[in-house]
Design goal:
Helices cover about 70% and strands about 0% of the residues. Helix 4 crosses helix 12, helix 7 (about 155-165) runs antiparallel to helix 10 (about 195-210) and helix 10 (about 195-210) runs antiparallel to helix 14 (about 265-295). The chain is flat and about 70 Å long. The chain has one domain: Orthogonal Bundle (MetI-like fold), CATH 1.10.3720.10. The protein is mostly helical. It is found in: Cell membrane. InterPro entries: MetI-like, MetI-like_sf. Its main location: membrane. It is a multi-pass membrane protein.
């Protein structure tokens, strides 16, 4: 009797575990699937509610409205360029700084670390930041997307903590072989830091891709520097404004136009899918590095 009970316990546990994981997956995926369904549903029908996992009235008008203007294609490549360039430069410079402050023989590592950490708690504010960008002649310049975010205090701490977990003998052996600090960093540290670098790369890339407020502040007067997120924000704002005007001037003779109307809810869903799709494509390839990097870089032994 005791043996049968012990054999039944793994079955009960695995069944319970499978049910919980399925429920968790449904809860996690539902918001995205619901947004996808709304993005393919007719705008006037979406107002009625009741859209869950499947569109009730299929249409691609929401995506047609998103891609109607030619500016969005140029803005897409600006977002890609700023994301790729900023991610690569930020990874290289932040990891170089992290390696520097991780060396025990470096005299100023503690003061520099304190100064960097203080930037996480104190911020000058929006107006001083704007005047700083202006004095650096970065207004209406592509470099305004790159230079201000090259070094991140949080990312530096994550990379530094990971580097401190690496065997010290590797660095010492490289120095015995005649390698300098830069050669050691390039040949030894960077290859060993792939997991944490992939984690930080995901942080930086997502932040750069989703950023639109810096475009609004520093480059809104130059259309050639407009990013995808900023164009999406303008499209959503214009959709809400047009929809409110249409509600005021609506009449019985305009019923056909109302049936094909793109509503703010439907256009927001389409914008969300278009904006999130590139990140969703890249993330599965970096997921194993993301989990591994966070585990090793977050705890110092």
């Amino acid at each position: 009797m005791r043996t049968k009970q012990l054999r039944a316990e793994p079955v009960v546990f695995h069944t319970f575990n499978a049910v919980v994981m399925i429920l968790l997956a449904v809860v996690t995926l539902y918001p995205f699937l619901n947004t996808l369904a709304v993005s393919f549903n007719a705008g006037n029908d979406t107002i009625r509610g009741g859209i869950y996992l499947w569109p009730r009235v299929w249409t691609n008008q929401n995506y047609t409205a998103v891609f109607a203007g030619g500016a969005i294609y140029h803005a897409f490549w600006i977002s890609v360029a700023r994301t790729v360039i900023a991610t690569v430069l930020s990874l290289f410079l932040t990891s170089m700084l992290a390696y520097t402050v991780s060396r025990k023989e470096y005299v100023f590592r503690k003061p520099i670390t304190v100064i960097i950490v203080l930037t996480m708690y104190f911020n000058a504010g929006l107006i001083p930041s704007y005047f700083l960008i202006k004095d650096l002649h970065l207004l209406n310049s592509f470099y305004v997307y790159i230079i201000p975010g090259l070094i991140s205090a949080f990312n530096m701490i994550v990379i530094r903590t990971y580097i401190q977990t690496l065997p010290e003998g590797l660095i010492e052996s490289a120095k015995i072989d005649g390698a300098g600090d830069f050669r050691t960093f390039i040949s030894i540290i960077l290859p060993l830091c792939q997991p944490v670098l992939a984690t930080v790369a995901l942080f930086v890339a997502v932040g750069q891709w989703n950023s639109w407020f810096d475009t609004f502040l520093y480059a809104s007067s130059k259309q050639d520097l407009s990013t995808l997120q900023y164009e999406m924000m303008k499209l959503l704002s214009s959709s809400m404004f047009s929809n409110s005007n249409a509600a005021v001037s609506n009449s019985g003779s305009a019923m056909n136009a109302v049936q094909n109307m793109v509503t703010p809810v439907s256009i927001r869903a389409a914008i969300t899918i278009v904006s999130a799709l590139p990140i969703l494509v890249v993330y599965p390839f970096m997921q194993k590095y993301f989990v591994h990097g966070m585990q090793l870089g977050s705890v110092k032994e």
